[in-house]
Amino acid sequence: MSTISDAAKRALFEKLAENMQLIYRKAIDADDVLAKLQQSGKGKFQNVFTQDAGFTVQSKRFMPYVKELAGQVVELEQEQDEELQIKLAEIVKKMELLLSTLNQFKSSV
Question: What is the mean pLDDT of residues 38-49?
C-alpha cells in the first residue's frame, strides 16, 4: 500500500472532523426527538442499531454511537499508513451508517 503524505493526512482528518461535527449536531436533535417520543409512550425499541452494525455500544439514543465513533477517529490519528487505511474504511462505513440513519429518522418524524 502507498504512503500517505502529511498534507493528505491533515486534509483527511479535517474532513473527518467536519463529518463528526455534522453527525454530532444531528444526533443531538435526533436524541431530543427520541426523548420526547418515549415520554409520550412512543419510540419503543431496544437499540438504534443492530449488533451487526459494527458498533460495540448498544443504545436507544444516537449519542453513545457518536462518542464511540469519535473515539475511533481520535485513535486513527495514531495509526501508521497501512493500519490507518484499514481502520479508515471501517470508520467511513460507520459514518455513512450514522448519517443515513439520522437523515432517515429526521425525514420520518
Answer: 84
